[in-house]
Amino acid sequence: MKILFATDEVLEVPYDTLVGVNLNNLGLHRAILEDMDLHDASFIGCDLRGAYLANSNLIRCDLSRTSLMTAFFMHANMKGARLHNCRAMFCNFAGADLDKADVLDADFSDANLCGTIMTCININYAKFTNATYDDLTVWPSNFDPVAAGCVKE
């Protein structure tokens, strides 16, 4: 299977599908993974800065210690994903579903969380400095986004 990049590069991986595969520590900067089924895949320690993952199935993916800065996750299904210590600054999560995603020590500073389902595990341990949200963003009932540093649009 080939992974394409916005830089016109191509990475050949020895899989027919990316469901459940181990892609740990790969350089996937600006990878084009939109509309893909990636559920149960492991991206631990990957460089996914500026990657395109809109509309992708990322259910139960492990994105721990991953660089996600400026990545595009619009309308991605990230239910149950693991985002421990990930750097998700300036990412676009508009309309994404992070229900039951574990965001322990994740950094969502300056991220777009408008219309995002943010009923996450360990949300009180994540960083949200200047992250934007709107009336469609869904938070846990015991979470105060303004106190966490979010800004309402």
Automatic annotation (TrEMBL):
The protein, known as: Pentapeptide repeat-containing protein
Gene3D superfamilies cross-referenced by the UniProt entry: E3 ubiquitin-protein ligase SopA (2.160.20.80)
InterPro entries tied to this protein: 5peptide_repeat, Pentapeptide-BTB/POZ_domain
Annotated Pfam families: Pentapeptide
